[in-house]
């Protein structure tokens, strides 16, 4: 597999920035409201995911619309389905382990371990991203030839 670091940074970088902001905001607010580390870990995970995948989906739709428009074709519900399928292939396996196990567990334990809510949440996000991106990038590269040609 070719190392497409610039492409990966362009694809995932802005989504990560949004995800970090959403994660920290949701975790901080949830902890203030509930004082619960479990609720904080789940809220941080879900808010980060919503921001991340919302951006990635919007990016894919925008790129596909632009590509189809240049070819004189319309973006349709079928095309949206293909965009969604490509995202499931790209992130499905990585996301199952990440959202259901790794990220919430790290966001629960690390704030306690480091003695700082925001520091622990940020460290948890960074560590979880390592286990998330390896399978996600491999799947993305494998899916480009078959699932991302419109």
TrEMBL record:
<feature type="transmembrane region" description="Helical">
    <location>
        <begin position="37"/>
        <end position="62"/>
    </location>
</feature>
<keyword id="KW-0472">Membrane</keyword>
<keyword id="KW-0812">Transmembrane</keyword>
<feature type="transmembrane region" description="Helical">
    <location>
        <begin position="12"/>
        <end position="31"/>
    </location>
</feature>
<protein>
    <submittedName>
        <fullName>Uncharacterized protein</fullName>
    </submittedName>
</protein>
<feature type="transmembrane region" description="Helical">
    <location>
        <begin position="83"/>
        <end position="102"/>
    </location>
</feature>
<keyword id="KW-1133">Transmembrane helix</keyword>
<feature type="transmembrane region" description="Helical">
    <location>
        <begin position="122"/>
        <end position="142"/>
    </location>
</feature>
């Amino acid at each position: 597999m070719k190392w497409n670091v610039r492409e990966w940074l362009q694809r995932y970088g802005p989504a990560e920035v949004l995800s970090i902001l959403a994660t920290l905001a949701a975790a901080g607010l949830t902890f203030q409201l509930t004082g619960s580390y479990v609720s904080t870990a789940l809220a941080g995970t879900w808010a980060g995911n919503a921001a991340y995948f919302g951006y990635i989906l919007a990016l894919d739709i925008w790129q596909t619309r632009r590509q189809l428009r240049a070819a004189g074709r319309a973006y349709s519900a079928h095309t949206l389905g293909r965009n969604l399928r490509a995202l499931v292939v790209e992130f499905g396996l990585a996301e199952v382990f990440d959202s259901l196990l790794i990220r919430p567990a790290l966001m629960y334990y690390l704030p306690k371990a480091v003695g700082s809510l925001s520091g622990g949440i940020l460290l948890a996000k960074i560590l979880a991203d390592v286990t998330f991106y390896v399978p996600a990038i491999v799947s993305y590269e494998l899916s480009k030839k078959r699932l991302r040609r419109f």
